[in-house]
Prior knowledge:
6 strands
Amino acid sequence: MAKSEYIVSLIKSHFNEEQERFTTMALQIAASEAKMGHIAYAEEIKTIIDKSKERKSKNKSFSKDLQGLLIEKNPFGHLSDLIVPNNIIDKINRIISEFVQRDKLHKHDLENRRKILLSGPPGTGKTLTASIIANELGLPLYTILMDKMVTKFMGETSAKLRAVFDLIEQNRGVFLFDEFDAIGGERSRDNDVGEMRRVLNSFLQFIERDNSESLIIAVTNNQKLLDTALFRRFDDVILFRLPTNEEKLALLKNLLSRYSKKINFTKLLPRINGLSHAEITLACLDAIKDIILSENKEMDNSLILKTIKDRNAAYHK
Length: 317
Ligand SMILES: Nc1ncnc2c1ncn2[C@@H]1O[C@H](COP(=O)(O)OP(=O)(O)OP(=O)(O)O)[C@@H](O)[C@H]1O
Ligand SMILES: [Mg+2]
């Protein structure tokens, strides 16, 4: 088959959802590229196919009860990307180090810290931290979709939670209960205010009983939930906060230094008062995109101030 025919078949099989055919066509394209001496292309196509097979086989191992309740995400990021106070870095290092040396601890009847609560304002690095821990430890990262957990009947919710905790036991990984306190939000509007507490209590009981080798990371930005009863269930609690001036500078430098030597970072500080790490990051990425896409723009204070202003205007409409 000529190359263009392969591509037509490939597109057709994609839209007809013929997965097998799609893979066969892709492999044929790889073979024909290899024949033409384009070995690197051929290898790249094969690697993509292999990786997608690996992912699928992992997803297939989820039982039927779990489908739609959690997703596996590729972890990314390194500790050096995270701009937080040193005490938070120390805590994360300790989680990693205790996990790596857990056998040593077990010999002394001690457990590595595995149940972690992250709390703090939006956009300060909580979800990123879970991803970094999984990435640094080479563990798969599963995010539990808490809103899918809640059903009308407590018995069913418990069954779903049990299925998730069974997986936590069978499949070593980082399990992220992101914004776990959001559960029942919809329902409380229907005057079912007890729902959230009920599910939350059940969730905490499962956490308490868990004896697996997985890391469980629960995230909340609801200050009201942070009572000692909640803390007690976790081996460690990490409180995130908005960046200090020093942290803002470090973040700006991390993101922008390689694009320009002209930026006066200190001058930018008053303009990013009250912004979170995520908001600052997004404004910087806007500026980076601008200079990539437009040849006559330069990375300097005025460009960054503009992207910050645009973002601010969008938030405070
Ligand atoms: N402390 C940080 N250091 C470096 N980058 C950060 C930090 N916090 C946030 N970011 C940037 O912002 C993005 C979004 O942050 P993240 O999703 O971790 O925030 P979050 O605390 O989980 O917020 P939310 O409560 O809204 O879920 C990150 O992927 C990263 O690019
Ligand atoms: Mg988050």
